[in-house]
């Protein structure tokens, strides 16, 4: 049963219920993401990061139904479509990354050569049954999830002929200026530039430590967002970056002294374990950033000042064993 803080809840199978109202776990969900449909199994939904689930289902989602209700629906549970206000390409990006990460770690069709099997043998050789509970990074694929919500406010130059009416509704020129600002921000894909600028301005060593920790754990300082897009009809950009956590576990050739070939760098593992603090407990940081964008050309610059409110969400996600086909998109999507 999911914890009370989880955006997903399901009825306990052991809960006493009247006869004929026993809970039935939903095997597959049909999601409509802004007009594009996905058929996703329950296992895949439960594997997604908490921060992504909160965006998909801000009001929660019940993954079980009473059998009497299903009988009334003729047992066809896939007929119910959940409308979700979330970018379908971003959803596809997350599903695809988790699928490939799970396959590379656990293997496809139970491949004995997958890292998971060698690490499981190494764990068994240690002779400590509590080892997995003490350190789940030894037996699960860990992914760092970093999201940014950037809401921007454009300050038109005094020479611009932009107006708002008495109700505060912007005219077409101002709307076009805001759209152009969003496209310019879309080009700024480097992950750490804005936070490093804030560190340099405020001399905030805690933020510098955050950057250093992320770069030691899997990111590079010049990394870019894996997915970045302007939200429709809003002065807002959504970005997400996913990276496999560096645990310090390497796989070398097997020897008589090390029949599993598994080598654990304890220093790197200690650093990786610090990120377990963000497992199922997303952490958020918000700050304001003043920037300028040039909407003109080299011969005729058109500089617009922006106030940007950035909200970062950091989370660690542990991927469980997934089925070979975790999702089926009813509409073909192009990955960015």
TrEMBL record:
One of its GO terms (cellular component) is nucleus. InterPro entries: SKP1/BTB/POZ_sf. It comes from the Eukaryota. SUPFAM superfamilies: POZ domain. One of its GO terms (molecular function) is RNA binding. It comes from Serendipita vermifera MAFF 305830. This is Potassium channel tetramerisation-type BTB domain-containing protein.
